[in-house]
C-alpha cells in the first residue's frame, strides 16, 4: 500500500511534465502530418476452384495446396509485375491528361511522369493505340543503366517499380476457402484501379501459359514418339509376315511339332522294321537249312530270282508310295499292290513246282516248308523295301530339321523385337493418355478461375495514419517522461521524503519541516511552520522520560542542514507551553575543539548547573569535522539527526550514520528529521496543511486513497 501511495505521489510530482511535453509532441506531430498524402485502397477477389472444384486427376487433388501457393506466387513474380508495369505505363501515357484527372491517372501525377520522359521515348507513344504503345515500350527496354524504361522498372518509382509493386501488392488466401484476395494501395486512385485490373488479366494468362505450356510440350513429345513407334511396329510385323510367306510358315509351333512327331514315329517304325527284317532273315536261314539242297535249287533258278527281284522292286515302289501318299498315285498304288499280289502268287507257284520236282526225286514232300520259307522271303523283301523307303523319308526329315532350325531362332528374334516395340508403344500410349487427362484437368481448373469481386475505382481515400502518429507521439513522449523520471527516481540519492530517506539510509524519520513558500502559499507559512513544530514536539516527548535527565542531541553531517533553526523552534514552543527548556550550542556555550567537550564523560562536565527537571537541547557541531563524545551520545534520551530533504545523501554521510549506530547503546535511538521538505512530505507527518479548499481536500483525500470517504468540512 505504501508503495502504491509512493507511485501516486511520484506521478503527481511530475504531472506538469506529463501534461506539457506530450501536448507539445502531439502539436508537433499534427503540424508535420497535416499534409500527408491520401492513399486509395483497391481490392479484388478471385475464385480459384483448386480445392473444392471437380478434378479428374486424384494426384492433382493431393497437391491442391501447392497449386494454390503457386498461383499466389505467380501474382507477385517479377515477370508478371514487369508486364503489368509496362502495360500500366502504356495506358497512362496514352490516356493521361495534364489538364484534368482521368480514370487512369491524375493530372499532377501525369505531369510528373511526362516531364521525365526522354524525346526518343515520346516518339513511341501512340495516343490511338494502347497495344502498339506497349509493344514499343517492350522493344525500347534494354538492361542498361541509361535506359529510361529499365530505370523506371528497377528503381524506386512509386507506380512502375517492380520491387515496390511486389512490396505493396498483398495477396492472401481467405481462410481455407478457394478464394484469394489481392489488395493494392497508392496515392492515385486511377493507378490503383488500373494496376489491379491489368494484374487480373495478366496473372491468369501467365498461369495458363505456365501450366499449358508444359503439358502441351509433353503431349507433343508423346505423340511424335507414338507415331515413330507405330511405324517401327508396323515395319516389324510386315517383316515377320514376309518372312513367314517366304519360308512357308503358317504355324511354326505346330509345324515343328508335326516334324518332331514324325521323327519319333519313324524311329519306332525303323525299330520295328529292323526287328522284322532280322526275324525274317533268321527264319529264312532256318528254313533254308531245313530244305537243304531244295532251297539251293530254288535260289539258283533264274526265273525264281527274276520274279523275286521283280517282287522286290514292286515292294520298293509300294513302300515309297505309302510313305509319300498322294491322291493322284492312289490308283497306281492299288494297281501295284495287285501286281505284287500276282507276283507273290507266281513266285509261290514257281517255288512249289520246283520243290515238287525235287520231292519226286527224293520222295519227300516240301510243300509246307516251301510255303513258310517263301512267306519269310517275301516278308524280308517287303521289310527291306520299307527300310529303303524309310531312309528316303529320313533324309527328307533331316532336311526339314535343317530347314526349320534357323527359322525358329529368326522368328523368336523378330517376335521379341515386335514385343519390345509393342510394349514401348503401349507405355507411350499410356503416358500420352495421362498427359491428355492432365491437360483436360488443367482446362477444368483454369476455367474455374473467376473474378468474383472485380476491382472498383475508389471514390474516397482511406483514412490516413495522422491520428495514429499523433497518438503514438503523445504516448511515446509520455512513456519517455515517465521512464526518464523513473530512472532518476531509482538512481537519485536525494532524500526528499520519508520513504526515500528510510530506503537510502536505513534509518527512521520522525518528522519534516517545510521550506518557505515564495508565492502560492506564502501567507500560510507561519501556520504550516507551527503545525510542523507541534508535530515534532509530539514525536519527541514520548522519548523524554522523567526518571532520568532529559537530553536531546541535535546532530548533522553537514553545514546548513537547519539544526539550529529546529532547536530554536523547539525551545520556543516548549517554553511557550511551560516546559523548562535549556538550549546549548557549540561555539557559544562550549567549544567544539575543546578537550572538555571532546573528552567529556558525562553531561555534568559539559553543563554543570543542569537541573533535573530541565530538558536540555544540545546542538552539536557538524559530525564530518568534529568528533562526538560517546558518553554524550549514550546519555541522551534521543539523538535527532537533522538533514535537508533536498540534498544528496553521500557515502560519507552514511558512514558517519553507521558509526553512530555502532557507538550508541541499543536503547538510545538515533532518528532523522528532514528540513526544507515539500508540502507532500510534511503532510505525511502533520496531516493536511492549509489552505483547506475543496480542491486541496480532494487532492489530500486521493493521496491518502480515501476514494469513497466522506470528510467533515473545516470551519
Structural account:
- The protein has four domains: 2-35 and 464-488, no CATH class; 40-215, no CATH class; 252-416; 494-703, 3-Layer(aba) Sandwich (Rossmann fold).
- By secondary structure, it is of the alpha/beta class.
- Helix content is 63%, strand content 9%.
- The radius of gyration is 68 Å and the shape is elongated.
- Residues 360-365 have low confidence and may be disordered.
- Strands 5-10-9-6-8-7 form a six-stranded parallel β-sheet, sandwiched between helices. The protein has a four-stranded antiparallel β-sheet with strand order 2-3-1-4.
Strand and helix layout:
Blueprint lengths: L1 H12 L1 H19 L6 E8 L10 H5 L1 H12 L2 H18 L11 H9 L3 H4 L7 H11 L7 H7 L7 H7 L1 E4 L5 E8 L2 H58 L5 H40 L1 H7 L2 H22 L6 H33 L4 H81 L2 E4 L12 H26 L6 H8 L3 E6 L10 H16 L9 E6 L7 H14 L4 E5 L9 H4 L4 H4 L8 E5 L10 H6 L2 E7 L6 H13 L6 E8 L1 H8 L7 H10 L12
Parallel strand pairs: 5-10, 6-8, 6-9, 7-8, 9-10
Antiparallel strand pairs: 1-3, 1-4, 2-3
Strand order of the largest sheet: 5-10-9-6-8-7
Portion in helices? 55-70%
What is the CA-atom radius of gyration, in angstroms? Answer: 68 Å
* CATH homologous superfamily designation of the largest domain: P-loop containing nucleotide triphosphate hydrolases
**CATH fold-level label of the largest domain:** Rossmann fold
Largest sheet: 6 strands, parallel
Number of domains: 4
GO cellular component, one term: plasma membrane
Keywords: Coiled coil, Membrane, Transmembrane, Transmembrane helix
InterPro entries: Bact_polysacc_biosynth/exp
Transmembrane segments: 12-32, 468-491
